[in-house]
Write a sequence for this structure.
């Protein structure tokens, strides 16, 4: 997917997701974490996440090289919005105590929340149908 396609999905679903998770983070798109951190175009590495939440800047970084479809974008937004509600201090402490990405309680919670990604497609459809109904004099479809 290209940045334009990803931005369209972000603009469509992030308002719904951010409302549900009380997340007001700004969204930035980057090819991958290596390019973002180095500032060098074309920089690559072995492992790349779909997204990342930065507690200090209150930003969600989405990595376009790992987002292949609408589901990936919605899941990433949910995942990072969940992190925005969690304590950075506890996030770091869990890793210090030996948890890894697969066992870290905050990561488990964020991955579990991702499973609700289809609900946002339904909410988007409901809002579209209701707005269509209002234009035609109906209150709900």
């Amino acid at each position: 997917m290209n940045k334009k396609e990803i931005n369209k999905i972000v603009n469509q679903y992030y308002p719904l997701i951010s409302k549900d998770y009380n997340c007001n983070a700004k969204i930035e798109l980057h090819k991958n974490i290596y390019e973002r951190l180095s500032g060098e175009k074309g920089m690559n590495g072995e492992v790349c996440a779909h997204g990342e939440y930065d507690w200090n800047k209150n930003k969600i970084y989405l990595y376009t090289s790992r987002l292949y479809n609408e589901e990936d974008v919605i899941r990433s937004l949910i995942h990072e919005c969940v992190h925005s509600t969690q304590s950075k201090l506890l996030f770091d402490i869990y890793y210090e105590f030996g948890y890894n990405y697969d066992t870290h309680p905050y990561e488990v919670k964020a991955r579990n929340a991702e499973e609700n990604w289809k609900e946002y497609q339904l909410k988007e459809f409901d809002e579209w149908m209701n707005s269509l109904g209002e234009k035609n004099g109906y209150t709900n479809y």
User: Anything to note?
Assistant: Residues 50 and 66 are 5 Å apart (CA to CA). The first helix runs from residue 3 to 21.
